[in-house]
Design goal:
Layout (H helix, E strand, L loop, with lengths): L1 H20 L2 H36 L1 H16 L11 H4 L6 H12 L4 E9 L8 H14 L3 E2 L2 E2 H4 L2 E2 L2 E2 L1 E2 L9 H5 L3 H10 L14 E2 L3 E2 L5 E3 L2 E9 L5 H16 L6 E6 L2 H12 L2 H18 L9 H24 L11 H21 L3 H4 L3 H30 L5 H37 L26 H14 L2 H23 L16 H12 L3 E10 L7 H13 L11 H12 L6 H12 L11 E3 L8 E11 L4 H16 L16 E4 L2 H34 L2 H24 L6 H26 L1 E2 L2 H27 L8 H32 L8 E2 L10 H6 L10 H15 L1
Parallel strand pairs: 16-17
Antiparallel strand pairs: 1-10, 1-11, 2-3, 4-5, 6-10, 7-10, 8-9, 12-14, 12-15, 13-14
Helix pairs in contact: 2-3, 2-16, 2-17, 3-13, 3-17, 12-13, 12-14, 12-28, 13-14, 13-17, 14-16, 14-17, 14-28, 16-17, 16-25, 16-27, 17-27, 18-28, 19-26, 19-29, 24-25, 25-26, 25-27, 26-27, 26-29, 27-28, 27-29, 28-29
């Protein structure tokens, strides 16, 4: 009985124990204990690694600087193959798009390697259908043939149609006959215009050449128009110098103007390179000014106002690290054959702003070492500094690299290449700051201990050195954060106001962000004061009835057997609401009308092709000669390929342009035509293609790619912060700050009128990584301090607040000069990153401390305790009492290891 009872009792106890273990409270305690063990292991591991790195660097600082410089120089050798790509299909079009193979086919069968000069001639509120205006237009035409460069004129450069230079304008309907045009009357002009709806030279619908207000009489005939376009087309030569000179002469002529025409606007093939990319290259000089401004700020922030403790060379080495990171990024990326595009000219500004942040973190740690740690020799002192600062610097750097790395997987090549360059640059910068910049601290400390001058290192000051009044040991920002800002922020009424304001601002940001529009248009990147920008806006104003011009190409098709299919397809295209009425210019339709007149009974493919060949050489069909390619120049022949031209109806925005493109493709794809067979060929025998479709293909995936990149970047950033901060709740609060920052940034961009395009997508993707910097420092420092929540939040602001603020301010100063840049891309860069800095600092230094003081997580097991019953001031006694560093408290085991190593080195 006794044994049985005992056994039952044990069983019951064991059952109770099992039940207890399964309770939620017990599970929570076990989970917390597990997280504490994980956090302790991660922090101890990182601190140990950084301590050993710092110990080596502090012992061999010159060797470290020289070795790292040589390695960066070797990486820079990759730039020997550097070249810039400006081809739209390689930069902005997803390489999986059907358009890629279609463009390859078109370029091979119907090479469109042409150059052009376009004039928009305008008579506001005046009629262009007058003899005076057409004579002035003729003067432009005749003058274009008088320009000569290297013994070549436009006649030598032009694209020829039916042996005549291709110049598209109203003058076509008079066949550019100067004698006839000079003697025209208004009646002659109107009668000719009414009787010639289609140009006999190029087959262009004449009304498409008219712009502005158009008036018609009761019979529907045009009697008034405000504007017209004249375009010179040239064949592209291997040596483009002559064509470039001709275009420049034509641009100058248009800007100078001509009598009889109120205003002429011009755009040429070279215009975007000159006005768009050109202004970007010109603004690169602002990078040098940015380096100077940031250097001055770093110099003032890191050092003291005396000849001994100023950090001149430390600041210079910091700028040197950024320069090396830029070299490594460009060198390695080029060596890996990653395409370089003009948007990458913003990368140096990005690295300049990001790099200084890590330097401030390390310097704040160096200055805030405890009295015991200050007594260590230089190698051990640097090791302790890096062990404290390393975790926080690693958090921000890894999250940046992860965010950029996610962007590198996007389908848009220009965005992908930018993110690859940025990832390599941030990684290089992280390593260089942890090695080269840290080495400069060791060398500077040697100089300081020997009493040598901050600028003239060979000069040794007399000891003891007398410090001036301006060279105070107290940190102004620490005084502000600890004695004024922190205590005020953490008052209960202020906390309530901060939370209400933050939530209201987030709600407003969400509301405005929902209204963000997608619109990628390369012309937005033209300076607003350029002639090319004026041309684009005038064309949109005066020629607002036309959409995208496009062509339907057909290759390898049996036109005789497919006559009914082609006829049905063309009818569906003509009747589509996405195609401008009357804009379809089809050789097939004209040929069908010609056949009954030829008197030949077409009974076979051979007869069909023979009749088509004769048609193309007849007076009626010769204007369609460029539309069809035969396999031979004499009978018998077969049709190798052909195309039809048309114009889309004007759409309200870029997203509807995508719909118009897809609707036309759908008509063609479902027409019942056969398919190509083979790699690198279009899928269908007939397909729609236009250079403007490249922009449509970009817009087609732009928004989904942005959402994908932002989502993946945010998820990865959260995962990294959880691993490195090693506390789920604190990481979640940091992540909330990042989300609020991004929501506010998107909202303010909509207010500023910025649309979603490739550049803004790049910057928003990068912003996820940058936004975490300001909050992660505060969150991690909060975890290293042991006390009540309010006190820990206050001490976090005192310890790391100045570094976070200086890092944000230096980032802003790095690109502040871009505010007045003529480049749209640089202006957008300034707006996006200014918003990230402002909202990032707010959420990191205002909102997060308030939230942590209310619901912050328990500190790390090895966190240092701080006093809770005394005033937090910045005098020397308080500083000696509060053993808190800016990022991470060294674990007890690590402290013992440090002092043991120090003692052994003494022995």
């Amino acid at each position: 009985m006794s044994n049985s009872l005992s056994t039952n009792t044990k069983t019951t106890n064991m059952g109770n124990k099992s039940t207890e273990e399964m309770t939620p409270e017990k599970n929570k305690r076990m989970c917390n204990a597990c997280m504490n063990k994980i956090s302790s292991f991660i922090i101890w591991s990182l601190e140990t690694v950084f301590f050993k790195v710092g110990l080596f660097i502090g012992t061999y600082p010159l060797l470290t600087i020289i070795t790292c410089s040589l390695m960066c120089g070797l990486c820079g050798i990759g730039m020997k193959t550097f070249h810039e790509s400006q081809e739209q299909e390689k930069l902005w079009v997803p390489q999986s798009s059907r358009l890629i193979n279609e463009k390859i086919w078109v370029d091979k069968i119907f090479p469109q390697d042409t150059r052009f000069v376009s004039f928009l001639t305008v008579q506001p509120e005046g009629n262009i259908l007058t003899p005076e205006f057409l004579n002035a237009l003729m003067d432009y035409y005749l003058q274009s043939f008088k320009f000569s460069f290297r013994n070549q004129s436009f006649s030598d450069l032009c694209l020829r149609v039916n042996s005549k230079c291709y110049v598209s304008s109203l003058l076509e309907i008079w066949n550019y006959d100067a004698d006839v045009i000079r003697n025209l009357t208004e009646t002659d002009i109107k009668l000719k215009l009414w009787s010639t709806p289609v140009s006999p030279v190029t087959g262009t619908n004449v009304q498409t050449l008219l712009g502005g207000k158009i008036k018609m009489d009761s019979n529907g005939n045009v009697v008034f128009a405000e504007a017209t376009e004249i375009m010179w087309i040239m064949e592209k030569q291997e040596d483009t110098s002559t064509a470039l000179d001709f275009e420049k002469a034509m641009i100058d002529m248009a800007l100078k103007g001509i009598r009889g025409i109120n205003k002429t606007y011009v755009y040429a093939t070279r215009s975007f390179d000159d006005e768009g990319y050109g202004v970007i290259n010109q603004d690169i000089k602002l990078l040098a000014m940015g380096f100077i401004i940031v250097f001055a700020f770093v110099l003032l922030s890191l050092g003291k106002f005396d000849l001994l403790r100023q950090k001149v060379y430390v600041s210079l080495v910091g700028m040197y690290c950024i320069g090396l990171a830029i070299l490594v990024s460009y060198g390695l990326s080029t060596a890996l054959d990653v395409i370089y595009n003009p948007i990458l000219s913003m990368l140096p500004f990005l690295l300049l702003g990001v790099g200084v942040d890590d330097m401030f973190v390390i310097m704040e740690t160096w200055k805030n070492l405890s009295p015991e740690e200050q007594k260590l020799d230089i190698p051990h002192k640097l090791g302790v500094t890096l062990s404290h600062a390393g975790v926080s610097v690693t958090v921000t750097s890894v999250t940046d690299i992860i965010a950029f790395g996610i962007g590198a997987s996007t389908a848009i090549p220009a965005l992908s290449s930018f993110c690859i360059y940025a990832s390599i640059g941030i990684l290089a910068l992280f390593l260089l700051v942890a090695t080269v910049f840290a080495s400069s601290l060791a060398l500077d400390e040697r100089r300081l201990q020997s009493g040598r001058d901050a600028c003239l290192c060979c000069y040794k000051h007399k000891q003891p050195y007398t410090f001036n009044k301006c060279s105070s040991d107290k940190s102004f920002l620490q005084i502000v954060f600890a004695n004024y800002y922190g205590p005020f922020l953490l008052k209960l009424p202020v906390k309530v106001l901060v939370i209400i304001f933050t939530l209201a601002m987030a709600g407003l940001g969400i509301w405005r962000a929902i209204h963000l529009r997608q619109d990628f248009d390369l012309t937005n990147y033209l300076p607003s004061d350029s002639y090319a920008y004026a041309y684009d806006h005038i064309k949109k104003e005066y020629f607002d009835r036309q959409g995208m011009e496009t062509r339907v190409y057909c290759g390898g098709l049996n036109y005789f057997r497919m006559q009914d299919v082609l006829q049905n397809m063309l009818e569906r295209i003509s009747n589509s609401s996405y195609i401008q009425t009357g804009s379809v210019n089809s050789w097939f339709t004209a040929f069908q009308m010609y056949l009954p007149l030829s008197g030949t009974d077409v009974t076979s493919e051979e007869v069909f092709n023979a009749q088509l060949f004769q048609f193309m050489h007849s007076l009626y069909g010769q204007r369609f000669a460029p539309f069809v390619q035969f396999n031979s120049s004499s009978l018998p022949v077969s049709v190798k390929a052909s195309y039809f031209t048309m114009t889309h109806s004007l759409q309200i925005d870029s997203q509807h342009d995508v719909i118009a493109m897809d609707k036309l493709r759908e008509i063609i794809d479902t027409a019942g035509l056969p398919q190509f067979h083979g790699a690198h060929l279009p899928k269908y025998m007939c397909f729609a293609y236009s250079r403007e479709y490249m922009t449509c293909e970009t817009n087609k995936v732009l928004l989904s790619e942005l959402y994908r990149n932002l989502g993946l970047s945010a998820a990865c950033v959260f995962a990294v912060t959880v691993i490195l901060i090693a506390n789920l709740w604190t990481s979640l609060l940091v992540f909330v700050c990042v989300l609020f920052t991004m929501v506010d940034v998107c909202g303010i961009l909509e207010v500023w009128g910025i649309k979603i395009d490739t550049a803004s997508s790049i910057l928003l993707t990068l912003s996820v990584g940058l936004a975490v910097d300001y909050s992660a420092h505060i969150g991690h420092t909060f975890m290293t301090i042991g006390s009540n929540r309010n006190n820990r939040a206050l001490m976090s602001l005192k310890a790391i607040g100045p570094a976070v603020f200086n890092g944000g301010l230096s980032t802003f100063l790095a690109f502040v000069l871009l505010a007045n840049s003529a480049s749209f891309g640089f202006q957008m860069f300034f707006k996006v990153f200014s918003a990230v800095v402002i909202f990032g600092l707010y959420h990191g230094l205002v909102f997060l401390p308030v939230i942590l003081s209310l619901v912050g997580s328990s500190p790390y097991l090895q966190a240092k305790d701080v006093p809770t019953d005394r005033t937090m001031d910045c005098d020397e006694e308080a500083t000696n009492t509060i053993l808190v560093n800016d990022h991470a408290a060294v674990t007890k085991n690590n402290i013992e290891l440090i002092h043991a190593d120090f003692s052994n080195s003494r022995m």
